[in-house]
Design brief:
17 helices, Transcription Regulator spoIIAA, hydrolase (chains A, B, C, D), Beta-lactamase, five-stranded antiparallel β-sheet, homotetramer, Glutaminase (chains A, B, C, D)
Chain lengths: ~425, ~425, ~425, ~425
C-alpha cells in the first residue's frame, strides 16, 4: 500500500485553492511579479520523513522566515543570556515594521520584528571575509540539508527602497542597540532575507527544531535543546505578529511567516510544516498559508495543547527471564523525560523488597534526558537499598558520560540477549 | 522501593524557602493576615497520580485562578464562537486590573484580566435559585473531586473595597459588555474568587485539563477537547499578565496565578501543577510560586516546547501469528493522533501486496482521536486494495460509533488472543 | 444711529443656519428631546455691554461648561497649589470620557475631562446643609447676575444611566483621587451639570473672566487674577477635547463646550462669547457652535494671537501747564501693565535733568497692575534723582495701599484741574 | 532719567544665576564645549525698542528655535492650507525626538517636533543654486536686521552623529511625507539648525511676530498676519514639548527652545523675549531660561491671559470744532480691531439724528484691521442715514485701497487741522 498522507496534503491544498484573498506584496518589484497561483505544502516528521505537495520545487526568498534562524544562530554563538541583553522576548503588540523598543531597556522587544531582527543580524559572529548573511546561509544550508543560495535580484531591488529598515537601523544606532554603521547592517539583513528556499527546504529546517535540535537521521546535535526551546517559544508568542492570541487558539503551532508568502511551523516532537502561497494579507501573512495551517490544526489535531501522553508507553514490556525465571526485565522504549520516568518509577515501586536481579533495558529508547537519567539512577539506588541487584543495559550507548557519572558500575554495554545468556 | 518524586518536590520547596521576596497582598484585610511562610506544592499526572508536599492541606481562596475555569464553564455552556463575541483572546499588554477593551469590538481583550473575568462571570448560565458563583463552585468541585466551599469572610471583606472592580463593572455596562446591574455581577465575581482550595484540589483540577478534559480515572468527559485547547491557549498567552514572553521562554507552562499566592499550571498530556506561597510581587504573582515553576521547568524539562515524540512507540509489537505464521499482527499502544498514525501507515506501507490476513490490535491504545481513526481506516482500505484481508481488533471498545462509521465490518470486539485462536 | 454689532451677530447666525450637521446627544432622553433648530449667540464686552441674537432666552443645561467654573471655585477656595495636587493641567489627548490619569501622580490629567471634573466637584468646600452643586449654583448665579436653577428632570434622568461616570468615580476612589463615596460625588457632579442657563447668562459669566475677574460694572473682584489666568489657560489647552491644536490655530479663543449644545468662550481683555445649538459632533461639541466661533475668529479677528498693542495709547496727552508753562503734565489712560509702563518710562526718559515739576495723572486709567505701579514709582524716583519734583495725581483712588507703599508722599488724591490751580 | 527696564532685566538674570541645574547638551561635541555660565536676556517691544543684559553679544546656534521660522517661511511660500496637508498642528504628547506621525494622515503631528521640522525644511522653496538652509538664513537675517551666518563646525560635527534625524528622515520617506533623498534633507535641516544668533537677534526676530508680522520701524509687512497667528498658535501648543499645559499656565508665552540653551518667546502685541543659558534639562530646555520666563510672567504680568483691554482708549478725544462749534470731531488712537470698533460705534450711537458734520480722524491710529475698517464705514453709513455729513480724515494713508472700497468719497487725505480750516 501507499500511505495516504500525501493525499491528505493534496486534499488540503485543493480546499485552499478556492481562497483567492490577499494581494501580492508590492513593496519591492520582484515580489509583485510572483506567480500568485503558486501553492505548495511540505510536512516533515521529527524522525526524518518528508511529504510534500503542489509546487514543492519552487524557490522563493525566505524573507522574515530567516528571523528565527538568525536568532537561533546567535543564541548558539553567544548564549541565551548575552543575547537577552540585546533583544527581548516580549510580544510587541505592534505591526512588524514598527520599531518597538522596550521602554526601560531600550532594546528591541523581540527578534521577530524588524528592529529585533536587524539587531540580531548584527550579532552574527563571523570569521574574516565571511559576511553575516553568508554565515547564516551556511547555517541554514546545514539545517536544510542542501546548499542554499541568494536571490541577488531581490536583494538588489530591496536595497533601493529599504527606507523603513534604514530608518529602524538609524534609530537602533541612536539608542545604542547597534554600534556599527546601520547601512551595512541593514544591507546584510536584506541579503539574509534573500536566501532562496523551497517548502521542502523549510520543512527540513523545521524538523530540526521539531526534533529538539538533533539531526533527524544522524542524531547529530545541530542546535542546543535550550536554544530550540527559546526559539520555539519566541516564534509562538511573537511569530505571527499582531494576533498572537488568535493564532495560538485557532492554530497553536509556533510559526513564522515571510512576506514572500511562506509560513514555517514547528510542532515540537512531532512535525515541521512549510507552506507557500504568495498572496498576503495586511499583516504580510500568506492568506492561503494561514488557511492551510488552520486546517492542519483543526483536522489533524496538530495543536500544541493537544498534548500526547507518552508516559504510558515507556515500558515496552516487563517479564521474567533466566533459567529459573528469576531475572526481572524491564524493556523501555521512546523518550525518557520527567513524565515517563515518573511512570517508570511508579511501576518499579511495585517490586517487593528482596534480592532479585532487575534488568532495565535502554536499547529501544530514542532519547534519555538528563532528568530522565537522574530519576532512573535514583530508582536504581532505591532498588539496591531494598536488596536488589540492578543492571542497566545500554547497548546503544544512549547514556552520556555525564548522565552515568557515579553509576557506571551498574551499566553494561552488551546487548540484552547477550547479557541474559549468563542467567541461562 | 518508594518513588523519589515526593522527595524531588520536597527538595524544590526547600530550595525556595530561602526566597523571602514579595509582600502579602494587602488590598483586602483577610489576605494581609495570611501566614507568609505557608508553602505547598502538588503535582498530578494525566493518568491520575498525585504527589504533594509542604502545607498541602492548607486552604486559601482561589481568586484569579478561578478565571480559566469560569471561562471553561461558559465555553461549555455557550460554545466557543458565542463566547468569542463577548470576550477576546488577545494578550492585553497591561496590568490585570486595567479595563483593556479591544478598541474595535469594545469587548474585554481576554478572560484573564478582570474586565474579561467579570464579563465571563456574567455569562455563566444557571437555573433558578442558583447563583453564578454557586454554579461555578459546583463545577470546580466536580473537577477537584471534592465539595469545595466559599470563604464568606474574604468575600464580605472584599466587597467593601471592590472599588476597582465596580469601576470596571460600570465601564463594561457603559460599553454594553454587561447588560445587567454591574453591582450584582461584581458581587458574584468576588464570591467566585472566594472559593477555598488546597494545592491538591488545584492539581486535581489541573490534571483534567492535562488529560484533555477526561476524568483521569473514570475516563468520563468533563470538558470538551476544544474547550480544553481554548482554555490552555488563553492561559498560556494571557495567564501570567505582563511578561507573557518571559514566562513562555523560561517556564513554558500554561498557568494562572491568584493574588492569594497560588499558581495553577498545566502541561498538556503530562502534568497538572499547583503551588502556594502568599508573598506576591508587584504583578500579584506569588514570588516563590514563580521560583518553583522555573525550577520545575528547568530541572525537570517540564516545558511546552520539550515535545516528547510519541510516534515511535505507537507500534508495541509486530509479529507473525497463526498456525502457519501467516497472520500479520500489529499491536498498537498509546494514543493514536496524526503523528502516530503517520508512523503506523509508514510501517504498513512496507507490507507487500498479497492476500495476507493483517490484524491491527487497538486493545492497548489509551485514546484514539478522530484523525487517528480516519487515518487507520484509510490504511485498512488501501491494504484491502492490495488484496489483504484486514481486521481491527477493538476488544475495549475504544472506537466510537462515529469513528467506525462505514468500517464496522472490519472491526471485531473480541480479545486478540481469542480472535487469533481461529487461525490455530 | 444704531450700532451694527447686533446685525453682525444676526448675520453670523443666519450663515450658520444652513449647517445642519451633527446629532442631538442621545445618551440621556431629555437631551434627545431638545429642539434641534434652536440657535442663539451672545457677546459681552469686558466693560459690561451685552449683545445677543436668536433664541437668547432659551434655557438649557450647562453640562460640561460648568467644569471651568467649578475649577475656578475650588481654586478660589483652596488656592492653586493645593488644587494642583489633586488635578493636573495637561491635555489628555483622549476623549472627554476617558479616565486619563497622570501615570506618575495618579491624578486626573486636567479638570476639563470627566475624571478631573468629578474630582474637582469633590473639592468644592461647603457649609453644613449646602450641597456642592448648590454651592456652585450660587457662585454661577453671582457671576451671571441672576438666580440660576437646576433642571431636576435632566438631573434625575441622567443619574439613571450614569454608568460611565460611576465607573470613573470608582476608579478615582481606587487610586485615591476621591476619598469619599463615589456615588454621592457623581450624583453631585451630575446635578452640577444640570444648572440651567441661557446664552446671555453664559456671556455674562464669560465676561467676568474676560475682565480679569472683576465685575465689569461694579469693579468688584469676583475672581482672583491668578485664578482667571489659570482657568483660561486650562480652557485653552484642554477645553475643546481632542483637537486642541486645530482649535487654537483656527479659533484661538479659550472655550468650553457642553453636550447640550452650548459653547462658552473668553477672549481676555476683550469679550465673552456664548453660543447654543444642540446638534453635536462625535466629540460632543455643537456643530454650529464651532462654526460660529470660527467665523467670529476669522471675520472679526477675535483670536488670542491677534494681540492688540495698547502700549502706544497709554499717554493720553502730554503738555505744559501752569502760569508759566513750566509744569509738565502726563495724562495717562487705559491699563498700566508692563508694556504700557515700559512705554511711559521710555517717554519720561526724554525729560532732561532739571527741577521741573512733573505731574503724572492716573485719573483716566481703568486699572493699574502691581508691575505697573512698581515701574511707575521707580520712574518717579529716578526723575527725583534728576532733580525734578514729581507728583502722582490719583483722584479716583486707583492705586491700592500696597501699591503706594513707601511712595505715599508723592501721591495726591485731588482732581488734576484742582491740583493744577496752585500753579496758576 | 534712565528707564529702569535694563535694571529689571539685570535683576532677573542675577536671581537666576543661583540656579545651576541642568547639563550641557552632549550629543554633539561642540555643544558640550559651551561655557555653562553664559547667561543673556533680551527684550524687544512691538514698536521697536530693544533691551538686553548679560552676554548679549555671545553667538550660539539657533537649533530648534529655527523651527517656527522655517514653518513661517513655508507658510508664506505655500499658504497655510497646502502646508497643513504635509504637517499637522496637534501637540504630540511625546518627546521632541519621536517620530509622532498622525495615525490617519501619516504626516508629522506638528512642525515643532523633529519629524515635522524635517518635513517643513523639505518644503522650503528656493531658486536654483540656493540651498534650503541658505534660503532660511536669508529670511532670518531679514527678520533679525543683520546678516546671520552658519556655524560650520557645529554643522559638520552634528552631521556625523545625526542618527536619530536620519532615522526620522527615512521613516518620513517610507510613509511618503518626504519624496526626496532623506540624507540630503536631514543634511539641510542640520545646517538650518547651525545658524548663529545672539539673544538680541532672537529678540529682534521675535518682535516681528509680536508686531503682527510688520517691521516694527518701517511698518513693512514681513509676514502675513494669518501666518503670524498660525506660527504663534503652534508655538504655544507645541513649542515647549511635553508639558504644554504646565508652560501655558505658569508662563503663558508662545515660545520655542533650542538645545543650545536658548528660548525665544513672543507675547503678541507686546514683546519679544530671548534668553540664553546652555545648561538644559532632560527635555532639552534651558533650565535658567525656563526660570527667567517664569519670573517675567509672574513678576511682570507677561502672560497671554493677562489681556489688556485696549477698547477704552480708542477715542483719544471728542470735541466740537469749527467757527460755530458745530463740527463734531472724533480723534482716534491705537489699533482699530473688533473690540475698539465696537466701543467706537457704541459712542457714535449717542449722536442724535441731525445734519451735523461729523469728522472721524484716523491720523493717530497705528493700524486699522479689515474688520475695523468694515465697522467704521458701517458706522459712517448709519450716521449718514441719520442725516449727518460724515468725513473720515486719513492724512497718513492708513486705510488700504481695499478697505476704502466703495467709501472713497467720504475719505479725505488732508491733515485734520488743515481740513478743519474750512469751517473757520
Amino acid at each position: 500500500m501507499q500511505t495516504p498522507v500525501p493525499d491528505y496534503l493534496k486534499h488540503v491544498l485543493s480546499q485552499c485553492q478556492r481562497n483567492v484573498g490577499g494581494q501580492l506584496a508590492d513593496y519591492i518589484p520582484e515580489l509583485a511579479q510572483a506567480d500568485p497561483n503558486k501553492l505548495a505544502l511540505a510536512l516533515s516528521t521529527a524522525d526524518g520523513m518528508i511529504y510534500s505537495s503542489g509546487d514543492d520545487g519552487h524557490e522563493f526568498t525566505i524573507q522574515s522566515m530567516s528571523k528565527p534562524f538568525a536568532y537561533a544562530l546567535v543564541l548558539e554563538q553567544l548564549g541565551i543570556e548575552e543575547v537577552l541583553q540585546k533583544v527581548g522576548v516580549e510580544p510587541s503588540g505592534e505591526a512588524f515594521n514598527q520599531i518597538s523598543l522596550d521602554k526601560e531597556l531600550n532594546i528591541p522587544k523581540n527578534p521577530m520584528i524588524n528592529s529585533g531582527a536587524i539587531t540580531t543580524h548584527s550579532l552574527i559572529q563571523t570569521t574574516a571575509g565571511i559576511s553575516r548573511a553568508e554565515q547564516l546561509r551556511r547555517f541554514l544550508s546545514e539545517l536544510a540539508g542542501r546548499e542554499l543560495s541568494f536571490d541577488e535580484q531581490v536583494y538588489t531591488s530591496e536595497m533601493k527602497t529599504a527606507f523603513r529598515n534604514l530608518s529602524i537601523g538609524y534609530m537602533l544606532r541612536t539608542v545604542g542597540a547597534l554600534d556599527t554603521d546601520p547601512v551595512e547592517i541593514v544591507n546584510g539583513y536584506i541579503q539574509q532575507c534573500a536566501i532562496k528556499v523551497t517548502v521542502k527546504d523549510l520543512a527540513n529546517i523545521a524538523r530540526v527544531l521539531a526534533n529538539g535540535g538533533l539531526h533527524p537521521k544522524t542524531g547529530e546535535c545541530l542546535l542546543d535543546r535550550a536554544v530550540v526551546r527559546q526559539v520555539l517559544s519566541v516564534m509562538l508568542s511573537c511569530g505571527m505578529y499582531d494576533a498572537a492570541g488568535d493564532w495560538l487558539t485557532t492554530v497553536g503551532i509556533p510559526a513564522k511567516s515571510g512576506v514572500s508568502g511562506g509560513i514555517i511551523g514547528v510542532l515540537p516532537g512531532q512535525v515541521g510544516i512549510a507552506v507557500f502561497s504568495p498572496r498576503v494579507d495586511e499583516h504580510g501573512n500568506s492568506v492561503r498559508g494561514i488557511d492551510i495551517f488552520e486546517r492542519l490544526s483543526a483536522d489533524m489535531g496538530l495543536h500544541l495543547m493537544e498534548g500526547t501522553p507518552s508516559a504510558q508507553t515507556i515500558i515496552q514490556s516487563c517479564y521474567w527471564a533466566g533459567k529459573n525465571d528469576d531475572v526481572r526485565v524491564y524493556e523501555l522504549r521512546g523518550v525518557l523525560q520527567f513524565t515517563e520516568s515518573e511512570m517508570l518509577l511508579r511501576n518499579l515501586q511495585e517490586e517487593p523488597p528482596g534480592d532479585t536481579t532487575i534488568v532495565l533495558d535502554l536499547t529501544n529508547l530514542t532519547l534519555i534526558h538528563d532528568v530522565g537519567a537522574r530519576m532512573l539512577f535514583e530508582g536504581v539506588e532505591r532498588l539496591q537499598q531494598d536488596g536488589h541487584r540492578v543492571v542497566v543495559v545500554d547497548s546503544e550507548g544512549i547514556l552520556s558520560e555525564a548522565q552515568m557519572k557515579g553509576n557506571k558500575r551498574v551499566v553494561v554495554k552488551e546487548k540484552l540477549t547477550k547479557y541474559l545468556e549468563k542467567f541461562q
